[in-house]
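Need C-alpha cells for this chain, all 420 residues.
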Amino acid sequence: MTPDRQFRRAAVVRLPLHATTSPREDRIPWAAMAGIIATVTVFALAQGLTYPLLSFILERRGTTPGLIGLSAAMTPLGFIVSAPFIPVLARRLGAARLAILCSTLAPLTLIAIALTQDVWAWMPLRLLLGIFANPLYVISETWLITIAPAPRRGRIMGLYSSIVSGGFSIGPLSLGLVGTEGWPPFMIGIVAFLVCGLIVLAVVPRLPKMPQEGEATSVRGFFALAPLLLFAVFTAAAFEQTLLSLFAVYGAALGSAEARIASLITCFIVGNAVLQIALGRVAEQFGSTRTMLFCALASLAGCLLLPSIFNAWLIWPLVFVWGGVSFGIYTMSLIQLGERFSGQALIAGNAAFAFVWGVGGIVGSPATGLVMQLIGHQGLPSSLGLLCCALAVLLMAERRCDSVRLSEPCRRRPPDGSCR
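Here are the C-alpha cells for all 420 residues:
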C-alpha cells in the first residue's frame, strides 16, 4: 500500500447511512449545541449588518459601485487567506481559545472601521474582519458535527443552517431600527461580537475537544480527498452571492419595481432559512448524496422557470423554494463531511469549506456579471443553471462509479456463492 493510500485511509472514515448506535451515542448534548449555535448566530448577525451598513455609508459619499464591490470582496478574501492556517492554530492554541480570541479581535476591527471612515483604510480592515470571522465558523461547525449523533445529524445541521441564515438576515433588518449613521449601528455589531466570546466562555466546559485522531491534514491535502464535495460548496456560495448581488439588475431589466425586487430577495432569504430543517430530515431518510442531487436539480429547474414566470404570482413560491434548495447544497455538504470524515481531517475539511466559500463568493458575481454583459440579463439564470447542471452531472457520475466499485468485488463469486 502506497503512503498516499495509507494517508487517505487514515483520514477518511466512511460511516454507514443507518448504522446502529447505542442510546448513549444518540444522546444530544443540548447545552453545548445551543451554545455553539447561539455563538455563530450572533456572529452571523454582526456580519450580516456590516455588509449593507458599509455599502450605505460608501454610497452616501459618492463612492463608485466598482469600488464598493471591491471593498465588500475583502471579507470573503479574508476567509480565503485565513482558511489554511485554522487547523494548525486550533491544534496549537486550542479551539475555545482561538474562538474567544477571534471574538475579541473582530469588535476591535469594527471599532477601527467606525473611527477611520475611509474607503481605502477599510480595505485591509475588512480583510482582517474576514480573517477573524472565519475561524469561528470553522470551529463551530466542527464542534457541531462532532457532537451530533449520526442518526440525527441531518436535522441538527439543518437547524444550524436555518438559525445561522436567520441571524445573517436579521443584521440588515436591524438597520431599519437604528439607521445607518453614527455609532448606533456599529455598536450593534460590536456588542454582538463581544457576546460571542461570552457565550463561548460560558459553555467551554461542555464543548468537545477538537478531534486529534488521524494524521494531520492540511486544507490543500483535503482538496485531494473530496474535490466534488468542495465543488458543491463552491456552487452553493456562488449561487447565493450571485443572486443576492445581481438579482436587482435582472429585475430592473424586466421592468420590475425596486420594492418588488427587494421583497423577492427577502423571500429567497426566508426560504433559505426555513427549509434547511426539512431538507436535513429528508437527508436522514434518503441519504445526503441523493438529497444534494435533488437540491441541484431543483435549483436548475428554478433557473429554467425564472424567465417565464418572473412577472407571474408563481414567482413567489418559486423564489422561496429556490432559496431553500440552493443553500441546501451547502447543508448537504456539511452532513456529508460528518458522514465521511473524522479526526483532524474533519477540521481541515471545514477550513477547506470556508476557503472554497470565499472563492465562490468572489468569483461568482463578477463572472455572472460578465456573462450578463455579453448575452443580456438572461445571463443570470443561464450562468446559475449551468453551474447547477454541472454539479448534478458530477453527482450522478459519482453515484454510478460508486455502484460499479461496490459491485466489482462480487463479480467473481466462487461456486459456494460467497463474496471474498
